[in-house]
Amino acid sequence: QSCSWREAQKRQANPISVRLPIAALTMQTLSILPLILCCCIALDHSLGAEFGHLGCFVDTATRDINGLDGWSTIGPYSVTWSSGGTVELSNMTVQLCSEICAYGNFRYFGLQHSSFCFCGNSYGRHGSAADSDCNMACAGNSAQICGSFGRNSVYRQVYNRPDSKYFALADRDYANLTSTSGPFYRTEQPVRSLTECVYRCDADCQAVLFHLDACHLLRFAVLPHELKTVAGKFAIRV
Ligand SMILES: *[C@@H]1O[C@H](CO)[C@@H](O)[C@H](O)[C@H]1NC(C)=O
Ligand SMILES: *[C@@H]1O[C@H](CO)[C@@H](O)[C@H](O)[C@H]1NC(C)=O
């Protein structure tokens, strides 16, 4: 089941016309068996998806983020309130909700009233709310905000695709990522071409931003705000 989740994630990838094969393909003939094993190992890594904060949004009885509607469990967690599906835990944190929603490969998650986690692929149908409306501490971490009555603190998930060997040019996509595991990119210079830049994107690298002779190697397939003013070509693993 773990592997099929991974496969589903790959199917959802949105390949576009430009494909840049990288030199790692030379290992392809040796790597068939390891790749099968890696499929399951890589999954656990992916479940530690990173996330970016999108703001405070209104919720009503018609749930805004409703991807768990009709589910009874997600991963090891029980889904409660059959209408609008949510996971309620007394140790809820932003990280835990991210991990829960990663089991379903959802793109967004929202935290409400301290302990409720919603997962889905869209958000915002009831509109945004003032940031100050989201003012309840998370049940599992009083330093974090987990929405309020009828308010979701909404986040976007950012997944790794560590085993893809192909890159494609993509539209620029920004998020304020949250992480405790170090910087979101490093820069190598001089690098002469986008192809060389992509070649240098290997371990712990999901995307590149190439501009003039600077190759920014990104840990996630999304641009951090620090790179907003940098022009250039953005390519992600697909
Ligand atoms: C992300 O961070 C930037 C810079 O700190 C800020 O201007 C922007 O409003 C933030 N965006 C979101 C969606 O939080
Ligand atoms: C949170 O609580 C659930 C259910 O009691 C438990 O399975 C899980 O391990 C806890 N998670 C953390 C991060 O403490």
TrEMBL record:
Source superkingdom = Eukaryota
Intracellular or extracellular location(s):
Membrane
Q: Which InterPro entries has this protein been placed in?
A: Kremen_rcpt, WSC_carb-bd
GO CC terms of this entry? plasma membrane
Q: What does the record say about its membrane topology?
A: Single-pass membrane protein
Read off the Pfam families from this record: WSC
Q: Where are the transmembrane segments?
A: 20-37
- Determine if Transport is one of this entry's keywords: no
KW Glycoprotein (keyword) present: yes
Residue ranges constituting the WSC domain according to the UniProt record = 50-158
* Keywords recorded for this protein, A-Z: Glycoprotein, Membrane, Signal, Transmembrane, Transmembrane helix
Name-wise, this protein is WSC domain-containing protein
